[in-house]
Each structure stands twice: as C-alpha cells, then as structure tokens.
Amino acid sequence: MDSLNPWGSSQVKDYERMRREFGIDPMPRVLEGNLMSERSLIMGQRDFNRVEIAMENGEKFAAMTGLMPSGQMHLGSKAVIDQMIYFQSRGAQIHIAVADLESLATREISLEKGREIALENFLLNYIAMGLKPCNFYFQSSNTYVQKLAFVVSREVTLSEMKGIYGFVDSKRMLELNSPLVQVADILSPQIYDEPMPTIVPVGADQDPHIRLTRDISGRMNMIKVTRKDGKFQFSIGGQGDVKEYVKIIKKIVKTHGLRILKENLAYRTIDTTEEGVNLDAIELHLARDERVLNNYSTIPPSSIILRLETGLHGGKMSKSVPESTVSLNDNPVDVSKKIKKALTGGRESVEEQKKLGGNPYICPVFELYLYHLSRTDKHIREVEETCKSGARLCGNCKSEAAELMSTYLVELKEKRESSRHLIPEYLGNENGMH
Ligand code: TRP
Ligand code: SF4
Predict the structure, then answer these.
(1) 205 and 348 share one domain
(2) pTM for the whole thing?
C-alpha cells in the first residue's frame, strides 16, 4: 500500500511526529472493507485493540461522534460518517451527539435553527449514505449528558485545560465548557449502559478531545491496574474504606486464574501474577464490577485518527473556506466549477506534464479520488500511475473527478428525498438514553 500513500515525505514525517509527540500508535493492520484503512488514510489509533477484540468476538461496543449544526456537511464530515457506518456494520451501537449548545454559543445559531440544520444538512445525508437507526440526540435536550458534563468537570483543572488547548486567560468560559460537554458525550454510552469499548473516529485536529476524555475516564475509576515488572498491581484510589474494593479485586483475580503475590492495604495495593492475561480484559472487567460502588466507572475510549483531507486550494478542508470545500448539499454544477479551479500536482505546461508526469501526492484532486471517488483499488492505482507517467493530464483528470462527484451528489440528493420519512426512526432517543 505504500505507493498509494498520498503525502509527500515531509507530510508523512509530520504525522509521524504527531504520533510520537502525543503517543498515538499506528494501525496494527488493515481493516478489510474499510476504504480509508485500505488506503492508509487512518494515521493512527489509541487502544484500537479493545475494539478489534470486541468486533472479532461479537461483544458489545459503541461508536460515538458528534456534529456541530452550523453550515453544511462537507467531505471531511463524510469521512467520519463513512467510519461510523463501517463500525455499525461490524456490530457497534451508534451514538451521535448534535452539539447544538456549542453552535448556539459559538455561532449564535438558535436551537430551532440548529435542529433544522442537524436534520436537513446532516442526519438526512447520514441516512442517504446508509447509516441505520441509531441513538441520535441533541445536547440541549439531553439532561443526562448535561449532568455528566458537570460531574466530569470535577476531574480537570484549569492548568490542564490550558496545557491541552493552549488557552489564554481572555478565553471565554465557553471554551472550557464545550470540551467538557464533549467528554460527557463520549463517556455517556458507557455510563448510561455499562463499561464497554467505545470507538471515536476523529480528524487529526480533534485528537486533544480524545486525550482529555481518556485522562478523565481514568481518574473517575476507583480501582486501577497496571502491569509492571511481570506483575499486575491493583491500586485503590480515594481515602475511604477499601473493603468492598478489595472484594471486587479478589473476585477478578480468581476469575482470571491469577495469584496474589502481595497485599498491602495500608498502601491500598494488591500485586498479582500476570501470565497469559490480557490487561484490557482485566480493565473492562474491573470497570464493570466497580459499577456497583461507582456510577462513573468507565474504560478509556479508543480512537482512530483520520488524516485531514486537503482543501481544493490547499490547507485543511473546512466549512469556513467554501471555495476550497465540497459540501454534500452543494449544487453539482457549482461543485464541478470548484473542482476545475482546484490546485493540482501538475506541471506548468502540457508538454512538461507529458514528459515528466504529475505529482499525485501533493494534489487535492487526487485526494478526492482517494478519499471518496475511486471505488476500487484498480481505479485509484490507474489514476496514480497515469498521473505519474504523464499519460493523464490535469484538465481531463479534473473533468473525470467533477463528473464522478456530480453523479455522487445527484444520487445522494435523490436518496435524501426518498429518506425523509425515515427521520423519526432516528429521533426516538433525542432527549438521551432514558
Ligand atoms: N466538537 C465536534 C465538532 O466540532 C462535535 C462533537 C460534539 C463531537 N460531541 C462530540 C465529536 C463527541 C466527537 C465526539 O464537530
Ligand atoms: Fe492531480 Fe490528476 Fe493532475 Fe495528477 S493528473 S496532478 S492527479 S489533477
């Protein structure tokens, strides 16, 4: 798959640096049937093994995302929903939060308008893309998530928020509150059901939210387990009586066939053997058993981190630069025009292009094929090879991309219209899970 990698080496280095700096692991293997994974467009993951095991064993797991109901749904958000649809097909419970409180506060979009945008510009496209009924809720009417946001705020200090997001003192409190509501969104499937693996597909720019959520998740558990020097060490947080927690630990030790090596209740720790036992399985089991004593026990959510698609004129594809962005509700004629004006990795002149070939790895048009338009490996390889050899000229290449994109958008629009009556099936839970 290496030759398919759409980035020049300098950008690959950036993603590598990002992985190193933030402790993101590469994908362990390709997920079959997942186009972005097959094309190396997932730059990394956190704790993906938990999700993989759940998928393989048919165990319960969740997939979570959210949307800001402002403006149009563009190709970047489509990539996330493609992932949600993939995980739904692999058995995930699907949870989608409408961040209408955030768009009310940051964009001054009324809740009524936010609702209309969420349904018309987002949910309807999700259904047209193939998302099946799921838990789709609005932050503004989900009192469970609001309450949880308040509870999780106990676990994080101002200096941490500054460290993670680089906030300066003049930031509004909104900037501190919104990520906490988002943490509550991400933990809510586990808190209102039971601890379970939760996959959150995010664009690379959203990774700080995942780090914050994972830290908070760890802090809300009373019992922690670590593997060190060939042992498991269980430790009990807080200052209260340890008796009930010790019972939970001992039950798990027994179930997993471990042996206690040292019990030091003054230090609130128990050391055990660890041979042959998977730490993730122990953590999940602990978080579930701890629930009798602690309503907020969870395991840290997992994530896959998607490479960001380049805008048609460079930079990141974002709502705020419409001429660089393709939105799913755009008129196909306008989209064709935008694509024809896009930057390319082509040469100055046709002669040079024929002689030297183009560079697909710096070309936003090639990315359109790679992320969305090429349905088969054969096709994407052909675009790549003919571009590099000089057989493909940018004008024709853009026309083909514009044509494929128009067809896609026209079909999607038809599906939207014929899906409208299905909306109520997705709104059964709009106030939350209870
Ligand atoms: N903040 C996200 C955005 O700007 C939306 C969001 C809200 C979200 N809750 C979430 C994303 C939970 C992932 C998980 O698009
Ligand atoms: Fe990009 Fe296509 Fe031109 Fe190659 S031929 S540089 S892929 S527009």
Answers:
(1) no
(2) 0.93
